[in-house]
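Table S2 (text version). Query chain:
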Amino acid sequence: MIVELGHYALVLALAMAFAQSTVPFLAAARNDAALLRVAPRTAIASFILIAFAFGALTYAYVTSDFSVLNVVENSHTAKPLIYKITGVWANHEGSMLLWVMILALFGAAVSAFGRNLPPSLLARVVGVMGLIAVGFLLFILLTSNPFERIANPPLNGQGMNPLLQDPGIAIHPPFLYLGYVGFSVAFAFAVAALIEGRVDPAWARWVRPWTLAAWVFLTAGIGLGSWWSYYELGWGGWWFWDPVENASFMPWLAGTALLHSAIVVEKRDALKSWTIFLAIIAFSFSLLGTFLVRSGALTSVHAFATDPKRGIFILALLALSVGGSFALYAWRAPTLKGGGLFQPISREGALVFNNVLLSIAAAMVFLGTLYPLFLETLTGEKISVGAPFFDSTFVPIMTPLIVVMAIGPFLPWKRADLFVAIGKLKLAIAIVVLTVLVTYWLSGGPAFALFGMGLAVWLFVGSLLEWAQRIKLFREPLGNSFRRMRNLPRSAHGMMLAHAGVAIVIAGITGSQAWTTESVQAMSVGDSVKVGSYTFTLDDIKEVQGPNYMARRAHITVQHPGDKTTILAPEKRIYTVEGQPTTEAAIKSGFIGDVYAVLGDPDDNGTWVTRFYIKPMIPWMWVGGLVMVAGGLLSLSDRRYRVGAPNRSRKKAPKTGHTAQPAE
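Corresponding structure-token output:
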């Protein structure tokens, strides 16, 4: 009964989404106060209905209701409760329901917290999000119904992909979807602004917190995904430039550019058309990622569906959303005149430079990801574009961006003196030189390691110096500096943390790529092998019983420099229901790096294949990611975002046939 109610709620949600996609536009066009008040309520009602449907599907998983096909295909009674719950979104149908629920959540949030918006703008934003919801609810109900029943329920289910039975991957998709779908709000604001023909600093203030929230969630989702890949897949890496990984990285790059571009609109009333364009691009990349994962075009550990019919449906949605928004952009963007003028050497100029490089990087990732698919479609020829292409093109693009990230905050708005700004970074330059010399003395290279560490220190110290300059640290009594620090907007602290987090990530990537030591060998119990300055001894291998798997667990003693020892216990598991093996790496993390051990398969001689890695500084990548997320959250807590934007000026907007309403 609960399953039927969930299905019925989803059908009602579609009807409500139709109302959400029509009533707001009608209300805004007529400037009907009663209908304008109704519009946000349709978004809240849609969320309640979809959340109920999601709860009904979760109930079916928790109670192991094998009369539901989706539960049969993705669950089992022996599965731990946590993975019964996460199994709801560890499949195509359930993940799409989660996707549309998050979309409805953002629509309801805009309706609830957007009371400071002009009623007509709020109505159009809600209406655009309703249009998106209609498309995806139709997709779910027509092609991916998670509530489909079967006539003769089996006694048990088929289980879930063992790779997905992990805490990291359990929380990775929700964060990723919160980021993907979060950009729908910026997209909706952009389309609403194009309809009204008005983009101003107040609009930028309204759109920035939603963009920042999406960026924070997507950053966390990408970080969780790379961490899971590192410790779960047992290959010792954290990023493979897999097409589905790239599908999450492209909207992140576009969203980062959008965040910085919106600052220029808010502060200087410039880059309006470009900011609208980036809002459309960021969400378009999110939709592209949805298509890639669910179209069957890719074979990946990340991909869900392999049904081309579903892919065609999503491709049609992608074409309508992206094509329609770009057609509107081509028509309305020329009316968006920029107000603020600035010199190339200025804060605005640095942000534009930032935007250009991020956009080029996103275009490069797009080309490398989609070109093999286009080529195979047109000619039937299969090629692969792998890490060498991305590494050789991405690093040269990012290097000047990182350099300017440290300089830009020292530049004033409108016009600046570049040499004066660089002069304020003399301490950073000195520390960079010292870092390069010390790194060379300790490791002897390679050259890219010296360069990467210098770049990381440049950005880290530069971010701290800019923050110190804001509070006049060591230039006034500490009490005064402390008061300045407390009065500084939280977004300033957040920017410093986010930039410092990027620097820490760069240092982690550099150290792990430059100085990793690896050893692969066949070992018998009692054998030892030396890897760098560490000694690994295989003490024992025994069988263990898990809740729904059998495993062979190794007992490995690691002798560190200085006579410190660590015990590692990597496993080779076989999940009894699915019959699939998995490799569970054992990792000892520390400030200076990780000690990483993997147990492989036995050979005919009774020996075991083992892989050992020493990975200096690799934890810094995820620490840096956490610092970036913390910086974003701190910025998001800024009082200016909570209070909202000031009232719009009452100057006339361009004639569009619609009247923009002043803020309440």
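Notes on Table S2: DSSP finds 21 helices and ten strands in the chain. The CA atoms of residues 364 and 393 lie 8 Å apart.
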